Amino acid sequence: MIKLRKAGVRFGSRWIFRNLDLEAPVGRSLAILGPNGRGKTTLLRSLLGFQALTEGRREVPAVIGYVPQSGNGDIGYTVRQIVATGRVALRGLFAMPSRSDFDVADEALRRVGMERFSHNRFDWLSGGERQLVLLARAIATGATTLVLDEPASALDLRNQDRFLKVVQSLREEGSHAILFTTHLPQHAAMVADDALLLFGIEDRLCGPVDDTMTEANIARLYGLPVRIVECRVENGSRPARGIVPLFGQEELIAS
Amino acid sequence: MKRAFRNLLLTASVVSLAATSVAGAEPVSVTDMMDRTVELENPASRITMIPIPSTSTVIALDGSTERLVGMHPLAKSAITEAILGAFFPEAKDITSDILAGGASTGFAPNVEAIAALNPDLVVQWGHMADDVVGPLTNAGFTTSLILYGDEAKARAIISMLGNLIGKPEKVDEIIAWRDETAAKIEAAVADVPDAEKPSVLYLLRAQSELRASGTGSYNDYYINLAGGRNAAAELDGLKPVNAEQIAAWNPDVILLNGFESELDVSRIYDDPVLGATNAAVSKRVYKMPIGGYRWDPPSQESPLTWQWLATLLHPEKVEFDLRGQIGDWYGKLYGHTPSTEQIDAILRMEMNGAGASYERFAAR
Amino acid sequence: MGAFGLLLLAAMLAGLGLGRLSIPLPTVAAILFQDIVPVTKDWSVLDERIVTLVRAPRILIAALSGAALAMCGAALQGIFRNPLVSPQILGISSGAAFGGALAILFGYSGFMLVGSAFAFGVLALLSVGFVARVDGRTETATIVLAGIIVGALFAALVSLVQFVADPNSSLPAIVGWLMGSFASATWPRLMLAAPAIAIAAIGLYLLRFRVNVLSLGDDEARSFGVKVERDRWIFFILVALGTGAVVAVAGVVGWVGLVVPHAARLIVGPDHRILVPASALLGAAYLVIIDTLARTVSASEIPLSVLTAIIGAPVFALLLRRSRRQENAR
After folding, report:
1. Structural domain contains residue C238
2. Which chains does A contact via 3+ CB–CB distances below 8 A?
3. Closest approach of chain B CAs to the CA of C189, in angstroms?
4. Which of B245, B260, B262 sits opposite C299 (nearest CB)?
5. Measured at the alpha carbon of residue B184, what is the angle toward residues B180 and B188, in degrees to the nearest 5?
6. How many CB atoms lie within 10 A of CB B299?
7. Residues in B 40-99 with any Cβ partner in C closer than 8 A
8. Residues of C with Cβ-Cβ distance to B102 under 8 angstroms
9. Contact residues on chain A for C81, CB-CB shorter than 8 A
10. What is the biggest distance separating any 2 CA atoms in chain B, rounded to whole angstroms?
11. Is B10 left (phi over 0), alpha (psi -120 to 50) or beta?
């Protein structure tokens, strides 16, 4: 469980957000959407405790399963070391990873489908593989809250699919509270239960994806008209929903 | 040794020939040690001395401090804190505020401060970079340069300075004393076979680090002259060494420098390793005396250094009356005769007195 | 790791056997073990004193210093995720150098010298902490910059001490001490430095996995519940303790803390659980070998930092090229 109450952050005289209430219970997945510069990152950093709140309260567990966009990994640790390290942090200054820590790390790597790479150097992996490893590390911490910073947004389609499938399976499992920021409304539509749309400093909308992620709201959020298209796929295991931006046709918003 | 002597006689005579003046208000012309011609309308009477050891040489040549208007802070402390301070109490009023940056930065002159002293001669080192000399010549000072190191250069310094102040006869007297003393010592130790010459280690630093004088140093010159062998002959110049190296050399005699004021012979005797060397076991550790200047480097008093060391190295072969010589020559050089207590202080009787053969220097 | 241990042992034995005074190796062994094994005393007092009072403490100080500097370097390089970081970066060396120079200026040696060097090393570290702490937070990059600022300030203060020092007594002592040497190593000096070095070494050894944790990056470590600032300060204090103690007894010995962790990393990999102890052994062996060279190659002592730089710089260049080539070839 992660909570913000009447939270606000100010840089100098400029408020990034104010009066923000946010709650991410275990078993639900929340997508945070907003245009560039609207404070997605600041909000995420506030949730994680990297950014102090100017006002309001924050309630978070001691350990959060944080998945950064790309890890600081140029030191040359192996994938398995990177994942196991996440488990040890809280156990005190002198703690070392034990055999059971490595067992949990291996299990987490299986969970994300990266067990084949466990002895490879982390910094020699591709961007998509790295994010999966970082997700495995977040899972391995045992944290019930996972916070993902723009996951899969810089990956190719194949790798987006790979990553989102893992997130989706975690969501279906229901044992984590999942929060993520994203630029891609379609990702939110696929793996989030709820969406938080950041329109302005105090102007926002939060609720179930089906209610909040309407064509009108998304158009308002980005200043760009969109169409939501339901694709019926023959023999498909699930319906696909496309959110199509209508680039170059801003005038359609008015109509 | 013979050739060295011929060379230095040659140097000395060249410098004397170059001097065209005798005492009095006549123009002087001298070739300095960097082969520059230095000309003065009259013998120098307002001198700023930047090199440290030669400052006391000017006092010795003149028999007074009257010609000095400025000197290096370390020269001043060496003079005022030792016997010359007692002979010439007025020396403490001569300014030492002539350097561009404190004493530790070396010898860069503060040209404006020197100009304020209105000197007719500035003496500076010749072996340093041009930036210690250039400012002086650019400012228009008559500048004479000296080099430092071996006996030949020591004589050339005396000769050059003596001629610049119009005292060539004092130069001749001092040079003759050096010749005569060196010859006496050479004759006395001539029949000592090399194998029986004691090995002597001179330590330029001994307090926090150990630094020994190797071949080519002035210490090396007088160790050999006095019938010893330089234990550190394999070193070239002044080099840091460790205790084990000294143990490996195992010198018969250790000479401690006169520069480090806190340094005592107990430094050697109390050291577990140095204290086990031949020198320490046979009580032959001595600290260099300090007279008109420290006896370690070459100066007008060098013949006293040689007699002192020859007596310690070969007490059975030489018969110098060192106290008498000090009395005579201080009279000739400085115009003052030191008291018994002052001679004790010069020879550091209190510290060195317990050393082997040092009773030879005791007052009778 | 075993190989590093053997290397260190071999270096220390060689160091005991080598020196300007030639003492046969069997004699050295007999001197060392005379209390345990019955032997006939066929050596001089001087031989015995050289082995037990000169070489033995000197080799131990060199080994301890090498181990401490290399461990400090390995830990800092990990924490800063920057292979160019060395104990010098936090200004500790400069601070300790100033403390030592000041002590010599006022005519102190021994305990006062060590104490002053250490105290100013810690003061430099605290200044870095003060400068780098902005709005209650201390970021890694700010620490490096603050270290450079404080280091430069103390370097200037060292110059100031040299400026006012007496050229006849304290100046050469300060210059000699700053260049780094184990020539004045004695048992009392060893005893003076050993506790601080031991605390630093044991601390860094116990905390070695913490380096892995911190090397993930401030944010990531924080998200896992690590008190990043507190942990980092624990490391800095240990590093100040180790580096300060080494500077105090041996002057500023450069390059060891930079080069040795690199060499060790190339051999045992980047995991600090192995890298920290491996650096310690390799650093100890390296400095014992360098110091043995410094005191035996010529009759005159060669300044330590001259040798560590002359040997360290080319080795570092070689390592750099090799690891870059490895990167490119992946």
Report:
1. yes
2. C
3. 13
4. B245
5. 170
6. 23
7. 74
8. 163-164
9. 72, 74-75
10. 62
11. alpha
pLDDT level of residue B102 (50, 70, 90 thresholds): low
Q: What is the ipTM of this complex?
A: 0.85
Two tokens, residue B59: 């006092």
Burial of C314 (C-beta count, 10 Å sphere; 0-12/13-18/19+): exposed
Q: What is the pLDDT of residues C157-181, one digit of tens each?
A: 999 998 888 776 778 778 877 877 7
Whole-model pTM: value is 0.83
Domain boundaries, chain A: 2-214
Residue C33 resides in a domain: no
Nearest-angstrom CA–CA distance, B87 and B69? 17
pLDDT in tens, B3-17: 444 444 444 444 444
Strands A55-59 and A2-11: antiparallel
The CATH homologous superfamily to which domain B2-170 belongs is Nitrogenase molybdenum iron protein domain (3.40.50.1980)
> Is residue B22 predicted with pLDDT exceeding 50?
no
- The distance from CA B169 to its chain's CA centroid, rounded to whole angstroms, is 21
The CATH-assigned architecture of domain A2-214 is: 3-Layer(aba) Sandwich (3.40)
The number of domains in chain C is 1
Interfacial C residues in 139-198 facing A (CB < 8 Å): none
pLDDT reported for residue B12 = 45
Is C222 in contact with A48 (Cβ distance < 8 A)? yes
In a mutational test of the B interface, the residue from C44, C49, C109 whose CB has the highest number of chain B CBs within 10 Å is: C49
Interface contact C322, partner B, CB < 8 A:
no
- From chain A, the residues in CB contact with C136 under 8 A are 52
Cα nearest neighbour of C171 on chain B? B104
Domain with residue C169: its CATH number is: 1.10.3470.10
Return d(Cα C176, Cα C251) in angstroms, integer.
Answer: 8
* C-alpha dihedral sign at C20, C21, C23, C28: negative
Residues of C in contact with A50 (CB under 8 A): 219, 222-223
Domain that holds residue C320: 57-329
Q: Where are the domains of chain B?
A: 2-170, 191-361
B227/chain C closest Cα distance in angstroms? 23
Q: Do chains B and A touch (3 or more CB pairs under 8 A)?
A: no
Instruction: Tell whether C222 is covered by a domain.
Output: yes
Residue B104 has pLDDT above 80, yes or no: no
Q: Are C60 and C186 in contact (CB under 8 A)?
A: no
Superfamily of domain B191-361: Nitrogenase molybdenum iron protein domain (3.40.50.1980)
Distance in angstroms (rounded) separating the CA atoms of residues B40 and B21: 10
Please name the member of B105, B235, B272 whose beta carbon is closest to the beta carbon of C299.
B235
